[in-house]
Amino acid sequence: MNELSEQPCYSAIVAAIEVISGKWSYSVISQLCQGAQRFNQLHRSLAGISIKSLTDTLRHLEQRGIIARKVFPTVPVTVEYSLTESGMAYSEVLVRMREWGINWGVKSL
Amino acid sequence: MNELSEQPCYSAIVAAIEVISGKWSYSVISQLCQGAQRFNQLHRSLAGISIKSLTDTLRHLEQRGIIARKVFPTVPVTVEYSLTESGMAYSEVLVRMREWGINWGVKSL
């Protein structure tokens, strides 16, 4: 059997599931995989997301260390969001999830 | 950037997330990684799970093709649960999730 059965590490799995629990988490991470983006860029790229949902999702991901927020002293101030190292590592998990979904998941729904 | 940004495949990711959405899904999959088990074995191994929760979780996982149910014509009938190929593939996703959680996740909670 694979190594999963030796170390349940339930809290580690819960932490991973928690990141993606927000409705827009995946979409924002997927967008930021394409590089750092400002709030308005993200809002334009994510059709159907409200300002509040985007604000909440960015805060959710920032609190979990998935994204970083950089403020530029322009007038008005500019804020740029990008994936952290943890966020880059998480996007690899998403790739594995998507691969499973494509190979097995979507048929079984 | 990694391949995630090229193919959102949102439905594939949703299918993967959906599997693990039940509270006990991870624990049941983790148990079955150790080999096929009967209902009572699972119930004994999963401290705190009710008969209803175990029944619901097994049905949830069976409906999504993660586990298979084998009925033996004993008296009384014996039912054995095991991971399918899709289930084995999904446990690899869980291993990646746990790795991320151990390396990055648990600190950021």
From TrEMBL, chains A, B:
HTH hxlR-type domain location is 9-109
* Protein name as it appears in the record: Transcriptional regulator, HxlR family
Can the keyword DNA-binding be found in this entry's annotation? yes
Q: Which InterPro entries match?
A: HTH_HxlR, WH-like_DNA-bd_sf, WH_DNA-bd_sf
- State one molecular function term (GO): DNA binding
Q: Which organism is it from?
A: Paenibacillus curdlanolyticus YK9
> What domain of life does the native source organism fall in?
Bacteria
Entry keywords, A to Z: DNA-binding, Transcription, Transcription regulation
Q: What is the lineage of its organism?
A: Bacteria, Bacillati, Bacillota, Bacilli, Bacillales
Q: Which Pfam families match?
A: HxlR
